[in-house]
Write a structure and sequence with these properties.
alpha/beta, Aspartate Aminotransferase, domain 1, 2 domains, 3-stranded antiparallel sheet, 15% strand
């Protein structure tokens, strides 16, 4: 039997970067500044330069980035944020945690990103922001969303947890709106070895607020200017990301190429549909997600693939408004595309170190009778 594949191959990445990671982490162990050490500022400078944003503020996780962005924007109880129901729960979770109200707009059926044409109808006098998600590694239609926001005086927060490194109309994800938020969870395109995240903005006041919020609202030591959180990214995790930046451009190129190769290999596989990637953007494939034919027994397909050593996942099996914690925010279920996508999506093994032979094996297993 052939050994099972890794769904995300972090071991090969570590082998390639082992010396650089060890050197970076050893520096932290030597200087001993485990909280807000010099690697934090170094990483923020490099990430800001990479995206083109004026400010980068590293934080404890991608979820924390969303929370701090909303706090910096002074979201108040009862304020509404228009977002997508087809995402990980953290997107809505941070809105609700602050007393806000997530208002769900349905998705484009072929990209699974929020449909910009449906957003304006969801805006009310209580709306404070729009929060699109750059799902699977492809940005939503950010220019259209920004134009809607400008007409209504709203902020736009890009939830870019899955899309760091992606490009939209020649600009980088995380530098497409009022604030961009990303995650360095280990499985993301740029991941650390624990939790980590960052937010990006060109707005000086928002950046200053975010920096204060992440250290319990302090503008100076023991001077608490605002309510904050313990939201710093550990120095050791910043060191890991700095080491990984050394080959990040190569990894993004690999992801783009592997995504195109998957597309070519899967284009004629019966019962498998492909996500659209718009011509004015790319997708860094945080997950390589496909559609199964409507009515397919997804669990049976996954079991058959598992029997051949092919791991799969479902991102996501239930839209947020069908989760018990959030169902009260969608009393009228007008989100049929999100429901349909949740029933059909399935993610295949994907990482920058996926080999062509492994990719061929995945596709062969999908072609085999089930």
């Amino acid at each position: 039997m052939t050994a099972p594949l890794d769904f995300i191959d972090l071991k090969s990445q570590y082998t390639a970067l082992k010396d650089a990671i060890a050197e970076r982490m050893q520096r932290v162990l030597d200087h001993g500044q485990y909280i807000m050490g010099p690697e934090v500022a170094e990483l923020e400078t490099k990430l800001a330069a990479y995206t083109g944003a004026k400010h980068c503020v590293t934080v404890a996780s991608g979820t924390e980035a969303l929370l701090i962005a909303l706090m910096a924007l002074d979201l108040r109880p009862g304020d509404e944020v228009v977002t997508t129901p087809f995402t990980f729960a953290a997107t809505a979770e941070m809105i609700v945690l602050l007393g806000g109200v997530p208002v769900f707009a349905d998705i484009e059926p072929d990209t699974c990103n929020i449909d910009a044409s449906l957003i304006e109808a969801k805006i009310t006098p209580r709306t404070r922001a729009i929060m699109p998600v750059s799902l699977y590694g492809q940005c939503a239609d950010m220019d259209a969303i920004n134009a809607i926001a400008a007409r209504h005086g709203l902020a736009v927060i890009e939830d870019a947890a899955q899309s760091f490194g992606a490009t939209y109309r020649g600009r980088k994800s995380c530098h497409l709106s009022t604030v961009g938020c990303t995650s360095f969870f280990p499985s993301k395109p740029l991941g650390c070895y624990g939790d980590g995240g960052a937010l990006f903005t060109d707005d000086d006041a928002l950046a200053q607020a975010a920096r204060e919020i992440r250290v319990h609202g302090q503008s100076a030591r023991y001077t608490h200017t605002r309510v904050g959180v313990g939201g710093r990214m550990d120095t050791l995790q910043c060191a890991v990301v700095l080491a990984k930046l050394e080959r990040f451009e190569w990894e993004i190129a690999q992801r783009l190429a592997l995504g195109e190769r998957y597309r070519a290999l899967l284009s004629d596989v019966p019962g498998v549909g492909l996500l659209a990637v718009r011509a004015d953007r790319d997708c860094v494939w945080a997950q390589y997600t496909v559609f199964l034919k409507a009515g397919s027994d997804r669990a049976a397909v996954q079991a058959a693939l598992k029997a051949q050593g092919i791991p799969t996942a479902v991102h996501y099996p239930k839209p947020v408004h069908h989760q018990a914690a959030y169902s009260r925010y969608a009393l009228v279920d007008d989100l049929p595309r999100s429901i349909a996508a949740a029933a059909r999506v399935m993610s295949l093994p994907m990482s920058a170190d996926l080999t062509h032979a492994q990719q061929d094996r995945v596709v062969a297993a999908l072609r085999s009778p089930r």
